[in-house]
Amino acid sequence: MTEAEQPAIQITTANRRFEGHKDSVSAVAVFPDRRRMVTASYDGTLRLWDLEEGAVLKIMKGHCNEVAGIAVSGDGQWIASGDFGGEVIAWNRDGEPLTQLIKVHSNKVFSLDFSPDSTFLASGSFDTITKLWSTKTWRVQGDPINCGPGSGAQIFCVRYSPSGEYLAIATKNDIQIWNPRKSQRIVKFQGHSVFNRGWNYSLAWTPDSKQLVSAGSTSDPTIRIWDSSTWQQVGEPCKGHTDTIYMVALNPTGTLIASASEDQQVHLWRLSDRRTIAIFKHPNQVYCVTFSADGKHIFSGGRGAMISKWAVPFLEDIPEDQVSVLKDPLREDTLEEHAANDAQQTDCEILAINTTARNACITGDLPTAVRLFTQEINADGNDYNSYANRSFVKARNSDWDCALDDALKSISIQPSLIGCVSEGIALCGKRQFQDAMKAFDIASMYVDADLNKTRLLLLIKAIALFNANQRDEAILRVQVLTTTRPNPSSLACGIVEAYLHMQLGMDALDYARHNEAADHFTAAVNTIGFPSMSAIHSRYDIFVVLFGWDLKSLWQTAHQNRCNVLLRAGRLPEAIEAYRYMMDRADEATKARCIDWSTAFTQDCGMLYTAAIDLDFATDTIFANRSKARSGEMLWDGALLDVEKVIKVNPSSYFGYQLKHAVLHGAHRYDEAIDAFQTMLSKLENAPDTQTQKLRQQYVNPSEVKGAIQQTVKAQLDDAPHRLLDTFTGRLCDREAQINAFITSTEYKEILSSKLMHVDLRMEHIKDVVAMYFRCVTLSHRWEGKEPLLHDVQDKVVDELNPVDGIMKLQSFCKTARAAGYRWGWIDSCCIDQANNVELQTSLNSMFVWYRTSALTMVYLSDVPPSSKPGALAKSAWNTRGWTVPEFLAPKVIRFYQSDWTPYLDDCSPNHKQSVAIMQELEDATGIDAQILVAFRPGMINAREKLQWASTRVTAVEEDIAYSLFGIFGVQLPIMYGEKKQKALGRLLQEIIAESGDITALDWVGTSSEFNSCLPADITSYEAPPYKLPSISEDEMPKLVSSLKSTVTVESALKMYSSLDCLSAPRFAHRRLHLPCNAFPITEVRRRFIRYEETYFTYEVKADGLRDLEITTENKLLQFSRGRPARPGRSFLLVRPWDRRLQLSDYADDTESMYDFTLPSPWPIEQCPVDSDSSERAMRLIIRLGQPFSAFLLAQQRGGEYKRIASDRDIIAQVKDVNSVQGMTDVRTLEIL
To answer: Start and end of every Heterokaryon incompatibility domain (predicted)?
Structure first.
């Protein structure tokens, strides 16, 4: 008989039936925990089932119409249901409603589906509309997806692709593929409508998102498969049904299809060849079908008001004449038989490692392995194999950066299989999965079509993903490979699958999920059929070398863990049976190794067996054990029933209430859990024996936990705005309202309940929860038109306001923040009481810190249209405003949004400060280095450069040009609107110079300020970069010093050095600057007449010890000369402000060192850290003093003080003769007004 003629298995009796609904079952979904199922019915209810016991855990009521569609989120946390009235309800995992009945569609909601990351829910309706919901708020997000007018666009099914890239929608007349993030349609094709005008009824995706499966109505009752790269049909359709196929589903590995039909049958198909494997016959029409989470069973339901559970047939279920087609070698034979065959084959070696290093890797002596590989590299720098081998060892130590460096070095020397594999493993460890997959794909180019190497490479890729916590994907890959592997005699797939199940079992055991752990250990046991693993360990030592696996004890460990976990789950008979099974198959060597374990295990079994028999004396223990087991499987209702029985048996004991607290906490019923804990404390305190009373010391009072949480909240909110927008409710909340919202939140109750059981409060966890709850999003924007102020939104719901002017921007901000998962938002327009001077001053002084500590800053570019090209950010008016400088420097995480609130350049990454393109554009627009933009730190270092950043910015209020810079420099000063910008800027510059001693802020050209003549009147004076003076190279300096020693005595040089060393730092207070400097008296000022010069005047100036120079200024200067000297008390000076860096550093011209500048108190010469030879330092200083310098022109006032005469360009002066030290010895501190 040919394969095409071979009949399918006919199955008429289900393994189990779940009965209870009063009308047809319309939908079924299983939970990822493998223990629960939810069903929907035309009777208007949902039912939550325990799959293990077949019992109803909860009847979920709330719908007023027939329920047509349900969905369970991928993480198992949410349930969603829709009915014929167009209404939707969201439920938690325990069947408690999270929302009221929401009328969201105008016609039947026929289908629902969660996004792969469980953050969105799609609902499809007969009204031709699909809507996307945020699971954070259970509100519709974005614009609805309109699938077209008329009844032809009625929606029967919506399905997210596993990658999340696509949303497939089946309508009556076509299949539409949408980008759910942008709500943009990618393609539309007729699907089944092409064939006899059939309807498109149901959809399902393969796990890799590469194929879409569709089902048709009675006119085309087939299953068709579509290629997601071309959207063309692939191969022949699946044919066999005779009437409408209402639903299709794929098993977790994507190899089998199940279909439910009006013809009263469920068909099981093999995807690869479209063959029917089995037919499950029902007494009535079948409306829904799904696979169990492990793919071993099918659940189906329909007109019969019940759900049937069917076993997916294995080899023993298939007729004799089909064995050749469907047999699986790992089921038909034991691994031991394959091992005997495999032992004769040559292993597909992909590693090139010498025996000594290989043995070091196998025994776990990784330092020796690293040393050996390093020796090989040192001996031959082009040994690409040794670099790759060392990368593997670094990866085993989780040193991913070094592992990646070695892998890349190997590939750079010579691309190879081993190099690409090492790169893939390292990238997986760094969680750069996309790049890792590319590396493994490139590795496949080097296998030379060797099927064994190909299989081994795919397994290594799966293991690397598994180790990087991509466990579901890894298991899926191994299972698919096991099903489709080209060489059925290979053991590799079975060994890997067994080991991964072992790891999953250990993970489940860590979280007390005993039944789940038992399933994994059982799967591992079933895969390994014999105890002697020495040959396997040797045969597949590549897994030992690369990942440190212990294959020798795999069989023994799997069996022991299986027995132990069954015992801990309260499944005593199964534990005993598993133990007997192990002992029957263990060889003598294995039995000898586990003699101690065997003795302890049998003793434990005996004790539990005795307890189970003696029910009268130990009933509470039995119930307690079962409650713990059920809790481990998250079967909270059953666990709570057992707890109540424990309490009933022994009501005076604290133990039952301790257990009750744990169960209620696990069920997220935190208020009840806290009450149970209080009762437990009371039982302990009133216990008749002192021993029990002492147990009270192990626990803390709820008041202590509350106090610790309150302190943490206070610390968290100290650096937060006083007033925030609750994006979930749309209301403005002051500090008290924020705290009250937290106290009533699930997060607060969860942490309060969880901390009650610990003496050590572990404040880190409390801090993490509080920080996560109070995460705040700040908005950076440009004020335009009428912005909403505090009184416009106070005591109102933002979403309910008329969306005009700034209100629309405010609503969009809240919506975008809410969609991103942030509850709290802050915007300067309405979150500050502008009429309250105290609050305004506090807010402006705190804004930099608020932006700094925000979880995210959203930058709204109102003048950047959607889909803008690079460069639009640079041209935005936002980039001209003064306040936006600290708003983009302060945050650590920032995102730019276009006018429609879509990400700039469609960059959906979480932090645009990590975008090279966007940061480069911002650098070009602002002149601020991209590295500074990404990692800015406030402070007074580099003051002149920071002032230049703001020099071209504008503000609506003139004083704000200074106030906006307070945070950048890390200063807090009074806010005094009305003082004018000269005074505001003057106070800021005075503070910078006084606090830091950095006089670079005095380097400007323009007009003097009324605040102090040494300061500019406007920040635009800093727009031009400072004049770059010539520097002396380190090669030139020794020659110049040597030449100077022939004309300048060491004594005079040291005297000059000492006089400068005695100068104190500049002082600036009360608008008076005390400036240490070298002074050069001016002996002649003579005006030089230039035609057409009206605003500025040019003067020729002579000064003692300086070369003649010209100065241009808008001030008229008194002309004088040696023959006609100036009046007494009206002298002029050219001064060189003293910069201690000339004295303390041999590298004063190094820009970086110059800016890292703080003046200490004067140092004695012998303490100078630069050069131990004081005379050499003194000579070097003289050389530097002889270089050109930026000079200030000062005019003496009547009281003996001075004022700076501003110039329109830099005044560059130079001493006449560097050999004349005496000409530079007028060192003093001048008071400048």
So the answer is: 777-864
